[in-house]
Write the structure tokens for this entry.
Amino acid sequence: MLPVERIIGEEGLSATPRGARLAMRLPWYRSLPFSTVEVAGVTLDGAPVDLADAIVEFDDTSFPLSDIGEQTNAFWFVRDSAFLVLPGVNLAANSEHEVSLLLHVNPPYIPGMKRVNPQTATLRVN
Amino acid sequence: MTVANGPQMGVTLYSFTNEWLTRQFELDTLLREVAKRNLGPNIEIIGFQSFKEFPDISDDFASYFKDLIAETGLNPVSCAINSDRFLKPGQQPIDDASLVEYHKRQLRSAKKLGFKLARSQFALPAHLLPELAPFCEDIGMQMGVEVHAPMWARHPAVLEYREMYEKLNSPMLGWIPDFGGTARAIPPSLLDAARAIGTPEALIEITKEIWAEDGPSYVKAGKLREIAAAKGYEQAHLQACTLSFFILSNNDPKSWAELVDRTIHIHGKFYGVSDEGVEEAIPYEEILPLFRDGGFTGTIVSEWEGHAYCTTDAFEQVRRHQAMCRRILAEAPVAA
């Protein structure tokens, strides 16, 4: 996998009081407004996760995943992970899980282009 | 011999995208590495790749960056800005006033960081140039549109810009050629990367044939997709092959001569320079003399894009590319 194809972040999967938290990397060469990124799906141990109440966290800000399309002035710095918080998903510390993530990127200067990025990894909860 | 005011060499940090994304370097350590290896002094930086605060740069960061530049002795020539017109996928582009302001934000930041010029993109419609030209003049910043594949000197979008450039006749506006639009072939290294993931030789052969045909890239890519679907090739293999239609096209290298007079900066796009000092896909021996002999005195930044499909050592590739360009630029001018 090329660096630009990586979407599961180095920080991996963690358990928080707010729910499971998954690190995501932006699969592009530059930072993009969050509005141009779609979190198209997450599965945990083969089962699809309901993303209706998911939250995106980046630095000190957070917003509901359902609002990501409105985030035209919030930029995902290409070097940094953003985090997907999954309320109601409670994972035991040190347990291992197979996580699949699907991200779509729509570069905002190339009309009509959609890059589809899947990645699956086995992660230990930290 | 190279005249003192002929084309200058430099590098864009975009060449080191793999090293950057994998966090092998921070901005300061990357700039120090470029300086240590003598790959500057001229540099280009993509604002949205290397600066976390972009598109708005704080006084503190600008001061930090200028200190870094002073320490390394590098020369911040070009800041690549982005013409992000399609902020909501599948919806209408943002309105003209917002797009103009988006460019001004980035131009102000580039100026604040000490860059001399900015790279823009064709997603900025030509009819907005009359609003940006006076702004560029006010802040003393040149802006050049990148002529990137599938664009080339006679592409309709380039001709539309050209007409506007002639009408405005502003020294602050110009071209930034990217040589990927005039490649002689698909880079063998790209095809090797496709083979490495198991792409069948038959699909590679079809790709090479279609790529070499005349016609717009998107039409050729569509043709390849249809054939691949009919023959049942895997999506991953198809994607590895269609990349070649988006980053390169096979227009006439000599056509760059038509843009030399308003060229303010150059992206020396390349994919792999051999041990013998020859780029594998782009005919530098044909292209560089056009700019050398046409009076271009700006900077050519080495832009290695092999990172789109492989993880070869970018620093070594840039070193080879600069040596190749210097060799060609030092040759005697071609007699008229």
